[in-house]
Amino acid sequence: MKSKEEHFREIVSAQQERVWNICRHYARSQDDIKDLQQEVMINVWRNLGSFRGESLLSTWIYRIAVNTCLGYILKENRRSAFTLSMDNKGIDDLMQTDETPEKIEYEQQLSLLHDAINRLTVIDKLLISLAIEKIPTKEMAEIIGITEPNVRTKLHRIREDLRKMLKGGNYES
Amino acid sequence: MNHNNEMENRNQAIDVDSLVSRMQKEDSRNKRMMRSVFYLYIFCTVFYAGLFIINPDPELTTYDRLGGLFYVLAFLTGTFFFRREYHTLKNTDYTLPLFQLLKTNEVRYRFFSWKWIIILLILLLIDVGISLSFLNPGRLMQFTILEKLVIIQGVFWSVMVAAGIVGYFLWKKRSYPIWKDSKTLLDELKA
Fold first, then answer.
1. Is residue A4's pLDDT more than 80?
2. Is A110 exposed, middle or buried (0-12, 13-18, 19+ CB in 10 A)?
């Protein structure tokens, strides 16, 4: 029988990176990401007793991460909290960059995308952060508590919004 | 100067005051309060039952005993109500999916809810108890029954309204930001 400490230590080592990946979209500096990640882990520790195994442990931890990060966005500036990292492969899927002509510089595109994402609502930003982390829509539905078709519809709408915004951005530039 | 601003910004950013943390802080404070009120109500139930119902003192009139019965009923209702509230707060699940968490918050942190009916019932029972105690012919003899009623109701409800206003400001300061954020996010999710 594992003690609570042992169980928690296992969770930390297994999920730390995933939590970091979610947190990095909401905090500006490495220190802030570390603080936010720590806050998520504190909430995991506090609620460990309530985990009944009805969902995957990773889904449960994502839920806590999402609920914690949301409050952080609300406290920080709602419009400028999102951060994109250039090394994230999920961004390619999000914007389907294989369709984008190669002549457009990737960095410029990323900067435009970053600005566009920051114009989205808090919930849309949240969905995008999960999509960037390549979380399946089924798991996203479990994390957020809405149906899978609803997640897909919202993601489709967000992608459309982002494309429109990016077109506008390119046109203006 | 710049260095100070930088430090200030950094400190503000480091203060991770998330929605869940704010909820936990607020719930923990409310939980402590509910537990204290629960014990106070148990004490009052036993005290008033002993003083007005069990007490064999022959000087206690029917008005006193009836009044005491209403006090006991009020405190007994309050005991069950605050016990339920305490257990609800104790068993709050902060790991619910976002939509459910926000939906629960929107109900839990709103100012007006069904709980007001229970609180109003407790106040009405206390009001009847006080009124019966003072309608006792041996008390406030210089006033007529109608005058006694007007004075008792005026004083009692003035105090209760004042308490309600204080409660509203406390809610506005502590719970309203959580309710407002939850409501905004819930509306965004529903859209």
1. no
2. middle
